[in-house]
Amino acid sequence: MMIKAGIIGGAGYTAGELIRLLIHHKEVKIDFVFSTSNSGNPISAIHQDLVGSIDQKFTDTINTNIDVLFLCLGHGNSGKFLAEHQFSDTTKIIDLSNEFRLVNDKVFQGNEYVYGLPEINKEEIKGANYIANPGCFATAIQLAIAPLASKKLITNNIHVNAVTGATGAGTSLSKTTHFTWRDNNFSYYKPFTHQHLGEIYQTIEKFQSESKHQVLFLPNRGNFSRGIFATVYTEFSGSAKEAIKIYKEFYKDAAFTFVADQTLHLKQVVNTNKCLVHVHKHENQLLITSCIDNLLKGASGQAVQNMNLMFGFEETEGLQLKANFF
Amino acid sequence: MMIKAGIIGGAGYTAGELIRLLIHHKEVKIDFVFSTSNSGNPISAIHQDLVGSIDQKFTDTINTNIDVLFLCLGHGNSGKFLAEHQFSDTTKIIDLSNEFRLVNDKVFQGNEYVYGLPEINKEEIKGANYIANPGCFATAIQLAIAPLASKKLITNNIHVNAVTGATGAGTSLSKTTHFTWRDNNFSYYKPFTHQHLGEIYQTIEKFQSESKHQVLFLPNRGNFSRGIFATVYTEFSGSAKEAIKIYKEFYKDAAFTFVADQTLHLKQVVNTNKCLVHVHKHENQLLITSCIDNLLKGASGQAVQNMNLMFGFEETEGLQLKANFF
Amino acid sequence: MMIKAGIIGGAGYTAGELIRLLIHHKEVKIDFVFSTSNSGNPISAIHQDLVGSIDQKFTDTINTNIDVLFLCLGHGNSGKFLAEHQFSDTTKIIDLSNEFRLVNDKVFQGNEYVYGLPEINKEEIKGANYIANPGCFATAIQLAIAPLASKKLITNNIHVNAVTGATGAGTSLSKTTHFTWRDNNFSYYKPFTHQHLGEIYQTIEKFQSESKHQVLFLPNRGNFSRGIFATVYTEFSGSAKEAIKIYKEFYKDAAFTFVADQTLHLKQVVNTNKCLVHVHKHENQLLITSCIDNLLKGASGQAVQNMNLMFGFEETEGLQLKANFF
Amino acid sequence: MMIKAGIIGGAGYTAGELIRLLIHHKEVKIDFVFSTSNSGNPISAIHQDLVGSIDQKFTDTINTNIDVLFLCLGHGNSGKFLAEHQFSDTTKIIDLSNEFRLVNDKVFQGNEYVYGLPEINKEEIKGANYIANPGCFATAIQLAIAPLASKKLITNNIHVNAVTGATGAGTSLSKTTHFTWRDNNFSYYKPFTHQHLGEIYQTIEKFQSESKHQVLFLPNRGNFSRGIFATVYTEFSGSAKEAIKIYKEFYKDAAFTFVADQTLHLKQVVNTNKCLVHVHKHENQLLITSCIDNLLKGASGQAVQNMNLMFGFEETEGLQLKANFF
């Protein structure tokens, strides 16, 4: 018997991706896709690749008896929405916003939101009813740093340069997502102050609580639509071989995170739920590269992965995706 | 029990796509991927999105007892390869080149190759052991024209303007696939003389043998990697409503071809096996738009669709793909 | 002594291009750039490539005693603006909108606007005080058709397929200019009904008034920022050689329009004021390709060319631009 | 009277850019463009934007009596070429390769090659007969670091992350310049070991010889054709205001390098000879951004700038270029 899923904020990027994933998930039936602005319109009129794949319409009414609820609202709106809508006690909730990710924010309405990064938190996720789904940059960067921190090997500042695609900025129109600005362009934003740093520090502290080193993170805007490519380096006294062993060991049971032997490029992961990680040593610097699709492993794919774990489904169900690659 | 598949010409675009599809196909096991130049290398060293997804290596030895053989060789090399390698009588063959597509070429080594366009040839494909898989432009254009021809409504020349991505030109390096040439550029090639016209005329004649009208086809090079967007117009004396009815009727049982109500754009189909078709009438012109992913519905996806039909699998098995969309 | 120029609508694409051109024009001084919304801001804060090149600010006050006024307003706003602002009798006006282009619209406030396509109207432009600057698609398509029409050789319908970049849609944000939509995408709009058809028919009639043939024009949206690539074909009974001779003769004195011997691609003209034209014959079809930069030869560059002619400057002054090419 | 220029290696990117610049330079006449492989072909058959702009052909004969010679050969071939061809004593030479840039390499055939970065070396360049034109990454990065070093304020390691377009890799075809690889992709190469580090350290030492700090430089491949965007950070104890003052002072007389008040994006400089620099302070880190067009300020534009200085022309002559911007 299939579980019933509801999606809130149905017209955005992450909701679209969730729908694309769930229509082929063999354990899940989409019960409703909530969007007040699009209520009554076919879902395929907005998510137009779904012509021929889904006949449902957006709705402005909510079934509070669903098995799983995905909150795909803008940052700051999840708590507000939950305050206004009472769901069944048995409804599990996966929130894609940043509202419940930090330890200080994780209890809401008496419910504890577990940080949903399966590579570092799988057992907790399996037992959870409420998930705070990680941020996209936060996912890529944590997966680059966590193995090192897990061995308490952060001994100096960590330098992070990462670039994200235009879907990272949401569907709303803005100067820097206008095609004539973005096409063949490159820039940075929020230097050293990106809001995902909180999640990243929290994970470092989880493994190496005594670390007081800085993460110097420079986020960039790339002229592509999907994906995050992160380069991370810090001092490391061991050999390349030792480092690679640590990373391979850390991810040996991971369903979607793999340590690649060759240098990475972004399109290896676009339109998949994978995170690929590569480790390189030069003199005393360890350079770790990681790349993900920001909308999948960085958002909706990871949300489905968390759902799979919470409901005891195969972790990879619905997520064996064909890469776009070209 | 899974059938065993072999792939010849394993390092190219279409072979890569086949591998991406078959590793998640529940009825098929990839027995070998043949590539003399890459023999011994991991498949994922060339098709690099497959890191973590496949451990097999390219091979230069061939198992002649497989159930299905996919020929992904350059045009002109399939016959030569088959002349040099003898497969089991029970091995079904799907050739992705243009060698056996035309009526005059369809018998080779005593075997008859069925033209593998399921929308017009499904029953023959189900009974076939040998398939000539259609060309990419030919697929998009035929699917735009066939419904009209099926009603013998081609009454004048047909004007076709279509644009393809850089994967349409194959993996070999050339001036017009160099990034600095192609990026933000546009051009045409082979005006009115593209090699796919033969297949297109053959299908028109199949339905409306008396038609002597020309297909004036202008192929263009677009600055994207995947996809074909084709606009096709010709005179039509009926109403828009009548035309749409003809198209919806023609495709009512199609597994992957759908008539869209809204104007199309290419990314609705990229990384899927779909063909979307749209019909519009202006004065006496009927404008039909069709779009496909040239590597999927235009090549490897259609090859798998044909395989599914030949072996009695679900027609959509392994082809329920998540669109890239962004 | 330099002439004084004023620019109205200063924050848009065409105003930006005008400023980029005029700051290096040796006969012109920019007197003011009018923009109510940006009044007081540095011009280089909006047209950001001009950091280091211009110190002027946008203004909301107008000097009515300038020598030349460029109207870069949205379509429909030029007449309204002129009704509200009285300029000196000696101020020449170049309007970049579509308001005064057609014969029926060309007299406004008692002034006659000359259609500013130098290749067909040079002498009239030289004597004009008011110019209606042609549309971008209209420029590319007319320059492909005019030589043929000039010999009264339009004998059948004309099929036009042309693709424009995202700057063609103006600076305002819209779904189809959002990067995540446009990137690697392709689509068409306004099939057979584009508003530039009026100008195109007007020019055909100028040369071959008895022609009653249709121009079937399909405009497309390409995933690039600048440029128009137009393919135009119609029946032609002469030889390729004869056609080429007609075109070379027609453009032998043109300052910016050249007949190319090789097949064209868009980037040959991007960031220049050129129009390149190529002529090819296949069976009974004559295929003419033309390409321009929509913001230069299709808008601001042609406006400066017109200004040069009106004031007796060198026709190419300020327009010897380095192509971007890559 | 115009000087006569010769260009060696005429079919490549940098030679093409030089030709584009010199045809509009009022003090220079292109005497010959040498290319053995293209000898006899029109220059506009290779540099195809020049149709209508230049009638000259490539040649395989050399006039050794020219005033200035530009060497646009692949790295390692300049010395070889000069050993085989004897030019007049009065011929000034500008070499665009990396062969004579370092102090240890700067004397060749008894001639001393001056490092041609005008912002730090203008007086020497004015008196030079032989110029080693800087590397593209080296130009962007030095212009970000030099003001700080000039005040001996390098107090810690310098972290550099920079991204270059596909023209940075030269015209030869390669996997990573194939459109289907590069489009919408991102990757890095030569981490911490790029060959331009030598030039960068040399310039730091010139100003602050005692500095023993590392430049940790990660070069990236972006999916655009032109441009370099470099972010550079290091510890700085002063205020943002102090830093900005240092930079503005350092560049107050620079012809093409400007300190921008707003955050930068790459397209501000594409198709210009500018370098824009921006300075930002966060906690104890000073973040300096610089961007250039790799083929202009990073190669051919700077070569013309050096020529202007060597011959006493206006420094900006021929280099007042219209940005592409969109």
Keywords:
homotetramer; 326 residues; Rossmann fold; Dihydrodipicolinate Reductase, domain 2; 27% helix; arginine biosynthesis (chains A, B, C, D)
The biggest sheet of chain A, with number of strands, parallel, antiparallel or mixed sense and barrel status, is: 7 strands, mixed
Q: Helicity range of the residues of chain A?
A: 25-40%
Secondary-structure arrangement, i.e. CATH architecture of the largest domain in chain A: 2-Layer Sandwich
Unreliable parts of chain A: none
Principal-axis shape of chain A equals: globular
Number of helices of chain A: 9
Please write the string of helix (H) and strand (E) elements of chain A. EHEHEHEEEEHEHEHEHEEHEEEH
Which pair has the most extensive contact? A-D, 41 and 41 residues
The H-level CATH homologous superfamily of the largest domain in chain A, spelled out, is Dihydrodipicolinate Reductase, domain 2
Q: Which sequence of strands runs across the widest sheet of chain A?
A: 10-11-9-12-15-14-13
Tell me the count of domains of chain A.
2
**What is the fold named in CATH at topology level of the largest domain in chain A?**
Dihydrodipicolinate Reductase, domain 2
Query: What is the number of beta strands of chain A?
Result: 15
